[in-house]
Amino acid sequence: MKNLILLLPLTFLFVACGGLKGVSPVWKELTSQTQTPAEQGATHFMYSDFYALNEHSITTNTLPWKLTAASLLYDKRHLPVWKSDNPDEIKTYREQLLKQKLTQFGFFYPKSIANAPESLKQPKQFPLGLFKGAVEGDQFGKPIKFEAAGLSCMACHSSRGYDSQGYPTDQVWLGAPNGSFDPELYTQNVYKGLKNVVSNKKQVYNYIKSIYPEMDEVEKESYRYALGVSETAQFLGADVIYQRIKELVQGIDSPLPFSNGAPGLTNGVGSLKSQLGLVPEDHYNSYEAGFTSIPNIFDREFRSSLLYDGVYYPKTKNQFSPVSLKDTHDSHIYDLAEIVTHFTVPTAGNHPTYSRHGAPQAYYVLKFLSTAQRPRFPGYVDIQRAKKGAQLYEQNCASCHGDYNNSYIYQPKLVYYPNKALSLNEIGSDIYRAKMIDKQTEQAIAKTRISQNANFKASDSYVATILSGLWMSAPYMHNGSVPTLWAFMNPEQRPKKFYVGGHRLNYEEVGIEYGNKSNELWSYSGSYEPWSEASVYDTAQPGKSNKGHERQFENLEQNQKRDLLEYLKLL
Question: Per-residue b/e over 139-173, b at no fewer than 16 CB within 10 Å?
Fold first, then answer.
């Protein structure tokens, strides 16, 4: 087993063809035209596979999309619409059902992209958050083709906007964190549907054909062989997908031997270690819990290293060195891009050798985000309090979180970031994420292609967070364990459990809106309907402690905290 969706490896294609590749048709169409640098960056961000549609990723994370769709909609297989003689009716209804299902996991179907270049403001495919393309090759002279899909940048690093009352809108902002994307729920739902292949693989095959009447004969034949329903010789002598799912069902009965995350929460280090063969696959391990909250990725050019613990850093930089505005030049951004493209290894199941080819695309993405419009706080701000808060920030926060130019108080701009690493003892936060990067992981990374372009070193610390866009980044802390900034500033008020996902925002306390705040569980108002499926965050679980960053607020009066909060709304 490998990673994210372990149950879907198309190993038979890899073995047989050895050179499978594909490309997102939307990306290909857009990049075949002349584009400005901003258009290139936005296009790559929204639609590129970063070279992850290849023979390696389809043995790990990239999914045969039509099988995935049939699995997610398996409980709808008896609907009479699938027997319609009208293919357009079938396609329309299928996409409506998929929209309902995928929205539950936090994928987007927006009306527009708020900060994309004008030519790209209208989405070119749905849902946003997945790249899709036909992966093709030959088997003994027979053509093989599957539409495959994987997670794009947008799944995690784009967010629905919020109106003046904190309600989510139908616009999406590139670069903002998706606090509602739930990779664990997505993974488990796909696995639940795929288990039906074990009990009735022929029924699943026929269902795929019925809900995809536009599927061509080559892809039909590919699925027929792969699921072992061929009336002639079976593909490579084995029904590979069927056998793979059967092994999982009879084994740990889970698509992963650890939790993949929760709304707004990922386990990238667990996924990376799984890709590198460092995670035992014969049992479920709840302590493989290196959870991280999906961050806002504006102003990343001010980082000297990347990720919450700063474990990746360019060979041209010290791991934790200050970066000022003059240092955010193109060569530094390209150094970061070579690291960013490596992140397709844990997210898309890419191979390090292939991932390096995506560095030019990642460079355009980072350049685009460095100048793209950012979502500004849409609620009320007490400017007089904010001005006082700016002074408090400079006195109490800037030494770790960076200097902002406040010449225009309504829109502070980051101009210097210290990249300060805070030891686990100093900050007191949950240790799981930092401790999961051990010597074994360091040694495994050193053997991959990324080691030629960047350094990888365990830090046993967390890097103070860049606070740009903080107002829409709830929940807070590196592991998303505190739902509001006010609770963050008042540690005694931090809840033990709280709902997250599909939430509305509270602009007074800055964070998730709750109608009921008991000591045990903070829940939404009964009148509010979450746009995606919410789940309970339990701070007693491994990797989810809400401890840390407490003493930094000990000397602040409540009025001062209110002043600071008003200023933080503006970042």
Answer: beeeebbbbbbbbbbbbbbbbbbbeeebebeebbb
Query: What is the model's pLDDT at position 157?
Result: 97
Structure tokens at 158: 């784009």
Rounded Cα distance between 528 and 531, Å, is: 9
What are the tens digits of pLDDT across the range 191-238? 898 888 888 888 999 999 999 999 999 999 888 877 777 655 444 334
3-state secondary structure 45-64: HHHCCCCCCECCHHHCCCEE
Spatial CA neighbour of 271 closest among 61, 63, 455, 431: 61
Residues in contact with 58: Cβ distance below 8 Å, sequence separation at least 6, in sequence order? 9, 10, 13, 14, 20, 64, 135, 146, 148
Average pLDDT on 436-452 reads 88
Q: State the Cα angle at 340 between 337 and 341, rounded to 5°.
A: 90
Distances (CA, A) of 125 to 32, 121, 214: 17, 12, 17
User: What does the alpha-carbon distance between residue 383 and residue 566 come to, in Å, rounded to a whole number?
Assistant: 7
CA-to-CA dists, residue 327 to 211, 310, 453, 490, angstroms: 53, 18, 19, 36
Mean pLDDT of the 415-439 span = 94
Is the pLDDT assigned to residue 486 strictly greater than 90? Answer: yes
Q: Which residues are registered as beta bridge partners of 428? A: none
> From CA 420, how far away is CA 442, in angstroms rounded?
21
268 class by beta-carbon count within 10 Å (0-12 exposed, 13-18 middle, 19+ buried): buried
Tokens standing for 161? 């906007």
> Strand (E) positions, 127-234?
130-139, 142-151, 158-162, 168-174
Tokens 């061509």, located at residue: 216
CA distance 464 to 402: 9
- Choice between 461 and 276, residue whose per-residue pLDDT is larger: 461
Q: Round to whole Å and give the CA distance between 409 and 428.
A: 32
Task: Encode pLDDT of 498-513 as tens digits.
Answer: 999 999 999 999 999 9
Judged against a pLDDT cut of 50, whether residue 16 lies above it is answered with no
CB atoms within 10 A of CB 398: 16
| Pure H helices in 402-529 | 424-427, 432-435, 439-446, 485-489
Q: Over the stretch 64-111, which tens digit does the pLDDT of each residue have?
A: 899 999 999 999 999 999 999 999 999 999 999 999 999 999 999 999
Structural tokens at position 169: 């809108």
**pLDDT > 90: what percent of the chain?**
70
Name the residue among 62, 52, 46, 49 with its Cα closest to residue 9.
62
